[in-house]
Amino acid sequence: MPLRSVRDIPAREGLSIVEGGGVTSAQGFRAAGVHAGFRANPNRLDMALVVADEPCACAAVFTKNVFCSAPVSVSRKHLDDVGYGTARAVVVNSGNANAATGQPGLEAAERTAAIVGEAVGCPSSEVMVASTGVIGQLLDVAPFEEGVPAALAQATAQAGASAAQAIMTTDTVPKEAAVSFDGTPLGFEGVTFTVGGMAKGSGMIMPNMATMIAVLTTDAPVKAPDLHAALVAAANRSFNKVTVDSDTSTNDCCFLLASGAAAAGGASFEPGGEAFAAFEAALDEVCQTLARKMAADGEGASRLVTVTVAGAASDEDADVAARAVANSPLVKTMIAGHDANWGRVAMAIGKCGAAFRQEDAAIDLLGLPVCRGGLTVPFDEDEALRRFEDPEIAIDVDLGAGDCETTIWTCDFTHDYITINGDYRS
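Given the sequence above, the corresponding structure tokens read:
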């Protein structure tokens, strides 16, 4: 029998997918994407602006890469180095990471926030800034001078898709998601709450918080400290479970803004209550959807790969074993070559340091049992080859050492990954 995995858990009840939804699906937000001039191609959008109608609660998580970018440093400061506070807008440029740029980079990020603040009518400290692109090049702030007013003029609740396009770098598709839930059974009669968002990320992806950037919004009433706690937990179950190439970007950041506009004047959701639990479930759903989209769109990828490790002695062992499989170049190229060589999975878990005995291990590839008790199980190679045509490839491992489990999302390695990154600055 195939191994049981966390993929067998039914979808969360009470959540409705917002078709075509994204960062402006929640009430109280507008957005736009424009070509400001960071990229040479005039037909390519390269700056996104997300604006709240009023100052609202904001929380963020950032990269733990020591070589962090200037926008990360500035946004951290704007949130008083605690990860939460008040914000009115988020501005993101693509084409230049503004990382490893020293004091001039910090000044450019602060000037960017000031330009947005002047246009929107808020203090620069209420503006979050993010950049993505090439590291080590000074950021010219001139494009913001005209780009920000242009974006603000175009910003609507219907223009979220253009913002999602503007933050793309090597992404092949924009990444958006939104879900809603009914507030009536939670004491908010006739109210529908929404969580939405957009993200970018295709390469240099193994968030550690974590070029991934995400902007999330909700119209639920949540106080900033509680918003931060929910975001950290959601990121640990989603963005921090993605790896494309095991590299943690210098610019990773994720912002979550809560307008409270769906229930203006209503009481805030309190941790431990049913309303807060419903909000957390919606936030998890959006974050995991975006995380899976990032893994599926990994640079040069042809397949989304879901690695589930169960039967671990601890959460840490489950995570380290799953990452060992997901980050293994041999496993990733095996999938690209449609070769059901389960020995590469055994190698990966065996080297990682997780506590287990070889004779207790079990492995499934593509839903086919291939290893039990540490020994090979005959399987139909033709059937495996057929299953490799599926857009999502499943690798399931049971270490037989405990009750802990986790899931990591990754992708395969193809020749295109080398082509993309060999020519990245061209």
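The two ends are 50 Å apart (CA to CA). Try to locate this feature in the token string yourself.
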